[in-house]
Structures are given as C-alpha cells and as structure tokens.
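Appendix B. Raw example, untouched.
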Amino acid sequence: MEPKHPLSGEATSVFKRLSDEIANLHLYWRIDQRLFGSGTKRVKLLNKTGPFLFRVFQDMVYDYVTLTLSRLTDPGRQGKYDNCSLEYLVKLLNEEKAIQIANDLRMILDELEQMCKPFRVRRDKVVAHNDLITAIAKDAKPLPAILVRDVDTALAELRRFMNAFNLYFFDSQTMYEDIIAPEGEANLIMNLKMAMTYKEMEKSCEIKPGRWREGEYGDA
C-alpha cells in the first residue's frame, strides 16, 4: 500500500519492525491472560495439571513484556548506536519534515514513557541486569509492582501511537488486541480438560488404569 504522505524507506522499515514486535507483545499477553486471567476455575485447572511449569511460563511472559515495553520506549540513540524504538521513528519523521504527525506521536510517546517507568526500573534492576543492591541488600528499595492494568494501559497507548501513524500514512488501523495464535491457549485448555476427565474416568474404573500408555504417544 502506498502512503498518502511522503515516507522514506527507512521510516517504513522501522515502523514495520516495531509493528511486528508490538503484535507479538499483544499475542503473548493475550495468551497469558487467557490462561491466568479467566477466573479461579481456570487457574485451578492449571494448578492441577502443571503448576510449576505454568508458573515458569507466566514469569517468562512478564519478563518478555518488561523487556519489550522497555525496548520500545528506549531513546532513539544511546552512545554510538541507534535503537529501533518509537522515539527513533519520531526522529525520522521530524527529519523528513512530517512535523504534524511527528508532534502528535511525540505527545503520545511522552505519556507512554511515563506509563513504562515501572517496567524500565524492573528491566534495569532484575531482568536485563542483576543490580547488586536490589539482589542482596536487606534494606533495598522494593521494585514497583507490575499489575495487569499497568500492562493493559501501556498496550492501549501503544496501539494509539501505532494507529495514529497508520491512519496518517495509510488510512488504516491494525487491531493488535485481536491477534490470535492458531492452536494456541484455547487448544491447550481443551486438552487439559480432556486429560482431567480421563483421570476422573480412570479413577471411577470407566477406563482401564494406564490405558493411556497404549496410545500412539504413550512413550513420547
């Protein structure tokens, strides 16, 4: 699709790379919330089938969210190196004299950066680095808590930034929040429910105990 306003190849490439990263971020968060944010019965099912594994998965998602939100809101340049960040995209637009949209995006980015401060602190102290005082000092300042609403609010602001760009240059929007994974969390939950039903039937002797070992994947 051709842009409605002049747009360099570099700015287009940066936007596409950011858009892909933001799409993945929404997908990972959606999976997390479908697994852990769908009520106590869903959590009970996970705890019955693989509590430690699912805890590891959730910790990894929170670290991924922390790193990604921090990377996206990094400065456009640090030392000798440019970053593929939202600020760098705004910088390119200013250089290309797209002043109106650059100013609009800068205002959104200012708000997003404020929202992402807790994520950046967590990134710098424990996720990307191992801050000594945080790690071992008994009187270390507690890290800011990362709540579900903090992630949801930051993602909404990210969508506002990306779709402001999309509307200005391409007269379109991307529904990042509706991205789904084929064979994703819904398929997993269905199989966990089936497995629990199987265990109940085995316990009541409706199925021969250990029958699962005779199946195609019994020795997987």
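End of appendix B.
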